[in-house]
Every structure is written in C-alpha cells, then in structure tokens.
Amino acid sequence: MAKQSMIQREIKRDKLIQRYRYKRENIKNLINSAENFDEIIQMQKKLQKIPRNSMNCRKRNRCWMTGRSRGFFRNFGLSRHVLREMAHECLLPGIKKSSW
C-alpha cells in the first residue's frame, strides 16, 4: 500500500491539471501563433507562472486499490500484483491464465 501522502499528492495534481488545462492550452496556442519575439517571451513568462504540477506529464498512474505506481496496467487501472490476484479469483471477465 502506498503512503497516504503520496496518494493525496497525486489527487492534488489531478485537480491542478483539470483547473489549468484550458489556460495552459490557450497560452501555448498564443505562443505558436505569435509573430514577434517579444510576444513569445511575454507568453512564456505567463506560462511559467502557472504551477508546475498542473502539467499533464507530472501525473503518475496509480493502482486504484493499493495506490502502487509501478507495474501499472492501464487497461484495468490496477498494479500487476492486484491484477494477478483478481485474475486467479476470476474477478476480471475475459482474463484467463495462458498456456501453450
């Protein structure tokens, strides 16, 4: 189980990402469409004032049961440990142990 502080930090990042998404996109579009260098610098300064944790690349996928960040399967939203246990208990439809 992940520390509660790490899980709460990730939740806070998700909220920041949602809050600043459109503002960040608008500023980036203005930077791309700017014609002179001074406008670009002004827009980049505005972009730097937005919190760093509002960037989507800072988000870390976590297992919704344990909060584990490593060994994460996107299709299920689970870590490899929980996925394996749930598959053995037949709790995931369509998943079965492979054999060849």
Catalogue the unreliable spans: none
* Structural class label: mainly alpha
The total beta strand count reads: 2
Largest sheet: 2 strands, antiparallel
Q: Could you report the average pLDDT, rounded to the nearest whole number?
A: 92
Strand content: under 5%
Oligomer state of the chains in this structure: single chain
Give the proportion of residues in helices.
40-55%
Report the span from N to C terminus.
Answer: 34 Å
Number of domains: 2
Short key terms for the protein model shown above:
100 residues, 3 helices, structural constituent of ribosome, 2 strands, mainly alpha, chloroplast, Ribosomal_uS14_bac/plastid, 30s Ribosomal Protein S14, Chain N, plastid, 2 domains
Describe it:
The protein has 100 residues and is mainly alpha-helical. It has 2 domains: 1-60; 61-100, 30s Ribosomal Protein S14, Chain N, CATH 4.10.830. It is 52% helix and 4% strand. It is built from 3 helices and 2 strands. It has helices spanning 4-33, 37-49, 80-88; strands at 72-73, 78-79. The chain has a two-stranded antiparallel ribbon with strand order 1-2. Strand 1 and strand 2 form a beta hairpin. Helix 1 packs antiparallel against helix 2 (37-49). The chain is elongated and about 60 Å long. 6% of the residues are buried.
Indicate the topology.
Layout: H1 4-33, H2 37-49, E1 72-73, E2 78-79, H3 80-88
Antiparallel strand pairs: 1-2
Helix pairs in contact: 1-2
